[in-house]
Amino acid sequence: GGQPRNVQPFSDEDASIETMSHCSGFSDPASFTEDGPEVDEEATQEDLEYKLKGFIDLTLDKSAKTRQAALESLKSAFSSKILYEFIMERRMTLTDSIERCIKKGKSDEQCAAAGLACLLCVQMGSGIESEEIFKTLGPVLKKIVCDGTASIQARQACATCLGICCFIVTDDITELYSTMECLENIFTKAYQRDRDTNGVSSTHNTVLHISALLAWTLLLTICPMNEVKKKIEMHLCKLPSLLSCDDLNMRIAAGETLALLFELARETDADFFYEDMDLLTEKLRALATDGNKHRAKVDKRKQRSVFRDVLRAVEERDFPTEMVKFGPERMYIDCWVKKQTYETFKEILGSGMQYHLQSNDFLRNVFELGPPVMLDAATLKTMKIPRFER
Questions:
Q1: Which residues contact 147 (CB under 8 A, 6 or more apart)?
Q2: Per 3-state DSSP, what percentage of the chain is helix, strand, and coil (rounded to 5)?
Q3: What's phi and psi for 333, nearest 5 deg?
Q4: Is residue 199's pLDDT more than 70?
Q5: Paired strand residues for 245
Q6: CA distances from 312 to 87, 125, 309, 316, 336 (A)
Q7: Residue 335 and residue 320: Cα distance in Å, rounded?
Q8: Which DSSP helix (H) or strand (E) runs through 56?
Q9: CA distances (Å), 150 to each of 72, 103, 358, in order?
Q10: How far is residue 111's CA from residue 68's CA, in Å, rounded to a whole number?
Q11: Which regions span the lipid bilayer (predicted)?
Q12: Backbone angles phi, psi at 125, to 5 degrees
């Protein structure tokens, strides 16, 4: 019966169980201070690193299922704990694994690898090491984004990854512009799908166009003002056509991008004037009060909520301030640029967003939060409000 097959170190189920059991406690630093026996943090850290080394090795496995499970396990750990020193020693190995999985893997594996690349750069922050990672992965990501034969999901994940990694690492202005151009070439195709007179029909490419538009918008927020002006002139007259798209998420992405463009335009020029203002506000008001019976109730509610804010931004230059709590700290999101940046990182970090806002130097720098607040276990314990009081 031929050679006996090697038993895999873990199945998909084991991978998720191992990672969950190991990483679930890292999403909240206060979990170390719960009542109960004291945890030996050094042993826990060693145990985690041992498992992570195993997952890194498994990203080279022959089985696509095993590679993907290993990538997902690494993503889980990277989003829920700061692992700077561990990653620093292995960044080239990780970069090579990610590159190989994006080039050779199928759709799901490519998506997992692109997600891990984002988290790798988030962990490393904006230093020379991240630049090296992006120099290697940038061309590979661009190739997939522009490859019409690749799966839409893989192209979508690579577009998001391209935007986030470029946002984190790019000091090189020409690299920033070429990345934006690559994303523009994708989402401007949505402009060209105007139907006869009134709207844009969504296609299976719409999810890709949305991701490219949002990634491009994120990069616009770090452009020099003269470039911002050029981009506003180029896109402000075309973006409103996407408000008529069949796809709710495309309408919302276009609306929020418009609000952000108006915010940036008014920052660069206090007397900024938009010629088709009446037509645009009419469109936005219709979406903010949409009662279309053919739309699902949840979709209508979501759309009306977003477009009320967009209309206020365009008409009244107003932004509804939101507050984000993490540990003992508070952060106020008081403009569209900050909102767009926060939503982007929340999307990739998931439940680990609060932990990273507390502990990740790079993210704290982006949101101008200053150095991390150092809290001892006793302070953390006193901060935990009993459920009854809460």
A1: 155
A2: 70, 5, 25
A3: -95, 110
A4: no
A5: 200
A6: 44, 35, 5, 5, 12
A7: 8
A8: helix 41-58
A9: 21, 10, 38
A10: 9
A11: none
A12: 75, -170
Q: Is the pLDDT of residue 339 over 70?
A: yes
Tokens of 136: 């290697």
Q: Which two tokens stand for residue 382?
A: 């006193």
* Secondary structure of residue 326 in the 3-state scheme: strand
Q: Give yes or no for a contact between 126 and 172, defined as CB atoms under 8 angstroms apart.
A: no
- pTM, full prediction: 0.84
Contact between 255 and 313 (Cβ < 8 Å): no
- What percent of the chain shows pLDDT beyond 70? 82
Cα–Cα dist 257/317, whole Å: 14
The residue whose two tokens read 């491009």 is 216
Distance CA 129, CA 359 (A): 19
Neighbours of 52 (CB within 10 A): 22
Q: For residue 223, which phi and psi values (nearest 5 degrees)?
A: -80, 150
Q: Which of 57, 76, 77 is closest to 67 using CA atoms?
A: 57
